[in-house]
Prior knowledge:
Structural class: alpha+beta
Order of helices and strands: HHEEHH
Number of helices: 4
Number of strands: 2
Amino acid sequence: MMKKEVLYIWSFILSLLLLFSTIGLLVWKIVPLAASKSFLPLHYNVYFGVDRFGPWYYVFMVPVIGLFIFFLNLFFETKYFKTEKILGRFFAVFSILFQFVLLVATILIVLVNI
């Protein structure tokens, strides 16, 4: 295996791990709250406090967006792997960073609901 391929493999593994962590955190913390609350706070603003409520299943839009971005980045990584190496690496690193940001957003959503 070439050394350049290692970035793509680790990008795939870390992105998937972060995505599964996001889903697991929501299932672990939010799904048990669904029985007791019909609407959950979905967004917190420093100036106004909680400014968006919704059904409990709306919190799963975060991992859905993460899954879409994961597959989109995977498509572009494979497309530009041989032709545009820098662009392929950009998509590989961006996938990890985006999944990390979504995990942090999920942690904040869980903290608002606890």
